[in-house]
Amino acid sequence: MTNKPLGEKGTLILALIAGLSLNGSFMAMFSSVVPFSLFPLISLVLAVYSLHYHYHDSAMPQGFPSLAAASFLLGLLVYSAIIRAEYPAIGSNFIPAILAVVLVFWIGRKLKVLKRDNQDGEI
Asked: Model-level pTM?
């Protein structure tokens, strides 16, 4: 099995889901504004288990640990921005939304650089 950087997008999606689920679980358990739900806890356990299994199954390519951490942070910020837009009593969603947009552009630029480096390495 080859380690292609662009084939690792599933790891980024799982990290994003883990970030969303972690923030959702925290808000559901400790915020009186957000109603309790068991589904963020279930999705958090499944996402972390899948990430753990994928980590033990194959090594991450160079540059992907920082992208996975950024995707996790993006999930945290996106959920925070969405909840703050839905429940304005919590506070403004300006900072999480701006940071999420900056992270999206950084992740896109980093993926583009990894794709270019991968193509240069194959030649």
From this structure: 0.87
Residue-wise pLDDT tens digits, 32-60: 888 889 999 999 999 999 999 888 888 88
Q: By residue range, what is the domain housing residue 51?
A: 5-122
Length in residues, the chain:
123
pLDDT bracket for residue 70 (50, 70, 90): very high
Instruction: Please give the DSSP secondary-structure letter assigned to residue 5.
Output: G
Query: What DSSP line would sit under 55-122, residue for residue?
Result: HHHSPPPTTHHHHHHHHHHHHHHHHHHHHHHH-TTS---HHHHHHHHHHHHHHHHHHHHHHHHHHHHH
- The DSSP letter of residue 89 is T
DSSP summary character for residue 60: P
Number of domains in the chain: 1
Query: How is residue 48 written in tokens?
Result: 């972390």
